[in-house]
Amino acid sequence: MKRIFLFLLTNIAIIVLLSITLSLLGVEGILAANGSDLDLQALLIFSAVFGFGGAFISLLISKWMAKRMTGAVVIESPNNNLEKWLIETVEKQAKIVGIKMPEVAIFPSASMNAFATGASKNKALVAVSQGLLDSMSQGEIEAVVGHEMSHVA
Fold this sequence. Notes:
alpha+beta; Zincin-like; 65% helix; 4 strands; four-stranded mixed β-sheet
């Protein structure tokens, strides 16, 4: 609930800031002086509707899009000890923060990278790059996963 509140508050703040900026710059007067009958209130409402809609759609498809763009492969059943350890580590941290087990994925990249995404904390994805797994110790990987879990929780 807190996330939705902050999401709505952020979007409202953007619209209010845009409205104040247009007012301070005197855009409505400039438009009127040039014979334009653009309704700024209607424009702000239009911006709010499409801004909120676009943000919600983006949030809803974020997990699917992240998997698709990175080529991340969700670990359904571990193929080796490292994958098993990674699943156990994420599961342990999910229990600590009190959320459902997120999907865990590995994406093909030589760089050390990780991300967390999802529409809600109980429908999340935590993904790490192959480069991160190849370059870091288990303690370091656990710290990175903990950081990503903090985004989810």
